[in-house]
Amino acid sequence: MLKEWMNPQKPEPEELAERLGAARERLARQQMQIKEKKLPVLVLVEGWGTAGKGSIIGRIIKNIDPRFFTVAAMEEPTEEEKRKPFLYRHFARIPEGGKFTFLDSGWMDEVVKERLYGGMSDEDYEARIGSIRRFERQLTDNGYLVIKFFLHISHEEQTKRIEKLWDSKDTRWRVSKDDMWQNEHYKRCRGAFDSYLRSTNLPSAPWYIVDAKSAKWAELQVLETLTQGIEIALNNSSMAVPLLQNVFPLEKMPLLAEIPLDKTVDIEEYHKELKRLQQRLGELHNRLYRKKVPVIVAYEGWDAAGKGGNIKRITGALDPRGYEVHPIASPEPHEKARHYLWRFWTRLPKTGHIAIFDRTWYGRVMVERLEGFCSENDWMRAYNEINEFEKELSDWGAVILKFWVQIDKDTQLYRFNERAATPEKQWKITDEDWRNREKWDLYENAVNEMLQKTSTTYAPWYVLESVDKRYARLKALRIMIEDLEKVL
Fold it and tell me: Which residue of 64, 281, 438, 468 is most buried, as measured by CB atoms within 10 A?
């Protein structure tokens, strides 16, 4: 893209000033429309060292109410961030609906640097590009406006800027080692930038190359492109997104009605096996920490199926410093205002740690689907988005265990009535539980579809027959131990 890029004609000073004033006023007006329509706007500013990325962002945000934007300078990943998936720190910074986030460099800078300095293999590079393309597509599919700018300057211009900054002790600190290395290897860096730009130039999130030689001219290019993109996004906010074909290998799953629920375990055998299995899981937890293997355990199931008791038997075997249980309820306002996977990306474990989710991202294709909290296009698209999310985790090296805790309708009624009649258990039963029970058949159809479409070879579903809770607890422990032993 950089090789074929045609440098746009810079307008005369009078025209430039007039257009700049109009673009600034337009952005100032649009910020209120963005707030009203809850449009999230993510602006990624990449480019050459000394091209003026920070200065451009500073000029743009002068036209926006400070309550409506955040700016993040993406430095080198911290040690903590390196123990999370590559996209974690970028996904964590996406804006709420109705607000802007400006990123001073981001995932492009991180990937290209690793490619140039770190010797990233071709295979790893292609995998990383695939992750980025899916990340950006998921954002735009879920209503985000993603605008990506690359600030371009020539080798001569970069050299001149570096020399000017270096001549003064007060500005010398602004010239980084990366800037110097880029300048010395300008052609090589241009080739790497060009390859990246081509690979990630998506119809829904295209790249805009900006002539950054003049500050005011660069500001005008960015402002006019940004305001035009906002205008289009505001007008197209209700458009449906085409559904993608599944490309992930699936495991065949039985229908819930086909699963026998008569499995039981003797109480004496239960206590004996529970002790043995918990001891083994504790041993494996130590090895997980030493080998820095992250584990994600996802629990879904019917109300009163026994998820909490199941989780308790797993955590009873673990070092409390090495796991966290996330009880997932209705999203908080700041969570609801972002991509639905944001609150799960931000709860992922570090390497060597375990995250256990009591309810999960699958709420999108169950409760949100059936209660009308999202559109049909949203939940139908979510099967593929969830498979992509879990593939990212698997490629990162995570062990993913997904349990559906299964009971029949009569067992649920018995447990509901027992809870209602027992004072210390009454907090466990709510009006919402009774309402959901009335939709049992609808939920069963939704769960069957979920199991069929998201039980992948890298993140399969396991059904825990939980009419006998003790049997379900032992089965979960055995499955977890078996999967961890394979990895370790």
Answer: 281
